[in-house]
Amino acid sequence: MLLIGGVALIGIYVGMQTHRAIMSRTGLLVFEKARAEADVAKSKGLLLEPSQKVDVKLWSEKRIAAYEQSLLERFNAPLAVLRIAKVNLEVPVLEGTDDLTLNRGVGHIAGTGQPGEEGNIGIAGHRDGFFRVLKDIGPGDAIEVVTASRRDIYRVDQIILVYPNDVSVLQSRPGRWLTLVTCYPFYFVGSAPQRYIVQASLAGSEGSPNAGSRANEVATSKN
Q1: Within 10 A of 98 (CB to CB), how many other CB atoms are there?
Q2: What pLDDT score was predicted for residue 8?
Q3: Measuring CA to CA, which residue among 92, 124, 119 is closest to residue 108?
Q4: Paired residues of 200 in beta bridges
Q5: Is 3 inside a domain boundary?
Q6: Is position 126 annotated as part of the catalytic site?
Q7: What is the model's pLDDT at position 221?
Q8: pLDDT mean by block of 10 residues, the chain; 223 residues
Q9: Are 140 and 181 in contact (CB under 8 A)?
């Protein structure tokens, strides 16, 4: 589980990037842009919320209870929605990786690329919650990241295991990339010793999240 004391991978990386991602002018500009996109989404009636009921059949009882409790809390508007059709996953991408945030959805890792922009987007989720389904995806599978202004379709390139202190998977790189992070093994009791990393590269884009036909073709072409 991505508990506060056990998220060494994320913790180390965030510590290295805090001055740039939070304190810098760049971080402030990104925040303002996210707010502006949220306003545009509202004006156009584009709600960045999942359209289907959360599927919890693979979740632990503890995580189900934590998710239900999180529904009582207020959160900022999500940055995006993450969709993986193969495993019936549709989940809001929220800012941050604290435990409450990861109970409600999946979290954007500070200092990594922003959804809808260039760079390597890092997204974390609980192995006994939203990201347990990652065990059932593989190379070639489609992953969608939908923001207020665009839909990006990624293809899984590889799945690797790393130790918590290996932050190389989150490093920035040219182009558009997506890195999903969760703890491993999925059913390990206690603090999991490794991290399960899904790395994907951009396969196609749509200018509007409502332009679904092409995205659906891309998402299903290799199923």
Answers
A1: 12
A2: 56
A3: 124
A4: 156, 178
A5: no
A6: yes
A7: 45
A8: 52 52 46 56 48 86 96 93 96 96 97 95 98 98 95 98 95 94 95 97 78 40 44
A9: no
The answer to whether 48 touches 147, Cβ cutoff 8 Å, is yes
Cα 174 to Cα 203: distance, rounded to the nearest angstrom: 15
Residue 45, token pair as written in the block: 């009636």
State how far the Cα of 140 lies from the Cα of 217, in Å rounded to an integer.
14
Cβ-contact 89, 125 below 8 angstroms: no
Q: DSSP character for 91?
A: E
Instruction: Residue 83: give the domain boundaries.
Output: 8-220
Structural domain includes residue 150? yes
State the total domains in the chain: 1
Catalytic one of 126, 127, 151, 176: 126
Residues 6+ apart with CB under 8 A from 88: 52, 55, 133
Positive or negative, the CA dihedral 54, 48, 157, 124 is: negative
- CATH number, position 17: 2.40.260.10
Q: Is residue 159 part of a domain?
A: yes
Of 9, 48, 153, 183, the catalytic one is: 183
Instruction: Provide the Cα torsion 155, 158, 163, 168; round to 10°.
Output: -70
Q: Is residue 1 part of a domain?
A: no
* The predicted structure's pLDDT at residue 180: 99
